[in-house]
Amino acid sequence: MAATLIDGNKIAGEIKEKLAEEIKRLKEKGVSPSLSSIQVGEDPGTKVYVRSQKKSCEKIGIEYNLRQFKEDVSQKELEDFINHLNEDKRVSGIILQMPLPSHIDGRGLQRMISSQKDAEGISPANMGMVVYARPILGPCTAMAVMELIKSTGVKLYGKEAVMVGHSDIVGKPTTLLLLDKFVTTSVCHIATGERGTLPEYVRKAEILIVAVGKANLVKGEWVKEGAIVIDVGINRVEGKIVGDVEFEVAKERASFITPVPGGVGPVTTAMLLKNTVEAAKLQAK
Ligand code: NAD
Fold it and tell me: Domain 31-116 sits in which CATH superfamily?
């Protein structure tokens, strides 16, 4: 039987609706959430993200300020700008758009963003709170994955999950959030792929999350019957956006599956907005 599609746009819409109401109430109390975005260079993908972030923010009442820097900007100029945003009381949240040119130390810049203004939830302090199972500003994509799994209504306690991908911003925090729900979680990465044991792991997964960035890496026939499949990957193939999972075959085996596009992406953006509102509240305290 074909899987139920997990509608990321619908889930994101519900989150944004609640946020819009909350923002109205906050503004009555004099708290106005705003998001400052830093873009370096002319990456076409970044331009699309920035446009969509601006639209999403403004639709629910968050002020969006974009500062664009030329490709040849220095590390020092960016550091100075982040320091300025950290100190500016009108700025609730900050997001540093990726990718950055190779002469820029992006991790270093991200670490400079005040943890109270870290809209992406990836600063060391915010990641640390994930370890303690008490995310304040949580890492957006990992939080989105959990929201999508929650929407299925499936009880998580004791389930077997496989996380494919161990990046700092997606794979690792998602693993911690799953552990917090008492999900037995295996993590696979490039070495699992090289060893050839990825199919073995995937076949066991009652919950499968894939965040790699390789189109069709996970074959549909590996997917366990009845699994929940969350596909985080974004790949452009022949002008089309696809995920990391062979969708057409996987959807015949899974019980729930996220489409790409329209799955994780919109909920990640909703989490960015949620963090911006949380950040504004933290600073108003
Ligand atoms: P990354 O690019 O930092 O790391 C990739 C991960 O995949 C690593 O853990 C690596 O070891 C693993 N990997 C590579 N080849 C493998 C193989 N053959 N078998 C098993 N594992 C393998 O990861 P990231 O930043 O988390 O991004 C992953 C994907 O998710 C990308 O396509 C990215 O665009 C997408 N992404 C989407 C969203 C969203 O909102 N939808 C957000 C963040 C990232």
Answer: Leucine Dehydrogenase, chain A, domain 1 (3.40.50.10860)
